[in-house]
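[recover] target loaded
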């Protein structure tokens, strides 16, 4: 199980807002039944790494719908092979030290 954090940002648009691009990207995760959570600056998904990479590519490409001609996408992958890792477990482990 892997965690993939993705941030999809359109560049050179007339508006400072890009929530519609984020919404389009989230549809890709929903269509594929992937568990995800949205933060103010990114989306974190959990699942099989090849499936997550495929969805990340679709999220990136979905930003080009409409007049957008340039998109910057940042991806961070956290993959453990020694045990099953879920988003809620990673958050709980971090918060346990507070």
């Amino acid at each position: 199980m892997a965690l993939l954090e993705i941030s999809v940002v359109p560049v050179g648009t007339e508006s400072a807002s890009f929530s519609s691009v984020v919404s389009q990207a989230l549809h890709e995760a929903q269509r594929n039944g992937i568990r995800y959570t949205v933060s103010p600056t990114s989306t974190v998904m959990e699942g099989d790494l090849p499936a997550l990479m495929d969805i990340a590519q679709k999220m990136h490409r979905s930003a080009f719908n409409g007049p957008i001609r340039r998109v910057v996408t940042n991806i961070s992958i956290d993959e453990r092979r020694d045990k099953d890792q879920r988003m809620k477990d990673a958050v709980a482990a971090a918060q346990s030290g507070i």
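[recover] notes: The radius of gyration is 14 Å.
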